[in-house]
Amino acid sequence: MNNHPNIHAMIVAAGRGSRFGASVAKQYTMLQGQTLLQHSVARLAASDYIDKCLLVVAADDRTAQTLDFALPIHYAVGGSERWQSVQAGVMTISNTGADDSDLVLIHDAARPAVPSHDIDQVITAAMTETYGAILATPVSDTLKESYSQSELTERLLDESDGHAYAKRTVDRHNMWQAQTPQVFRLGQLRKVLNYVSEHQLTITDEASAFEYLALPIRLVIGSRQNIKLTYPDDATLLAAILNAQA
């Protein structure tokens, strides 16, 4: 195995961020005078391992190429699902002649506060792994599972209010919250994404694809400052984190 592989950085920015509820795509939300996407690229630029970045954007994106970035940028067109966008990026990287043992670093545009130390840590960890490594944090809050709609119907006469009800407390031992960057061997990533496509699977991150095939991905403890902009309230917290990190 190549212990000093090339690093190919990719930011997935083809989504619309429907849960965020803004009129512009979430990655173009402004914080401290720059878009989330610009902040996220700048974080990658702070790593000594990264000297360029592939942005995977929507086919109708007219904004990305008007922005200034902290790294040389190349582009690929994403798909309707996140994994399809990642697959498009992987094919773009593969077509440059990259080696299968090279590492692909995948970061969310909506995580603009990842510490550069964490980026370097997850890359260093992935260099020693057959498949890859991801940033994650151990779950510290009490977790509740709610009733499904069918279960609720059996227990309550009127479930039309749409409220959620606690069913049980989930054991948080061995539970982690996944973050990005996630870093994988190029050849292995291409294989598992092909498997997802062939079997029409649903995944929420790239590590999920490896899990379907029981392929071990290393967990690297990341900072809790590395939050993702998902809901409007997150913007206030992210602005505070960015100010504190400045």
Please describe the biggest sheet, giving its number of strands, its sense, and whether it closes into a barrel. 7 strands, mixed
Number of helix segments?
Answer: 7
Low-confidence stretches: none
- As a whole number of angstroms, the C-alpha radius of gyration is 19 Å
Count all strands and give the number. Answer: 11
Task: Kindly name the structural category.
Answer: alpha/beta
Instruction: Output the helix-strand order.
Output: EEEHEEHEHEEHEEHHEH
Shape descriptor = globular
**Strand order in space, largest sheet:** 5-4-1-6-10-7-11
Beta-strand level of the residues, as a percent range? 15-25%
Task: Measure the end-to-end span.
Answer: 38 Å
Helix content: 25-40%
Arithmetic mean pLDDT: 91
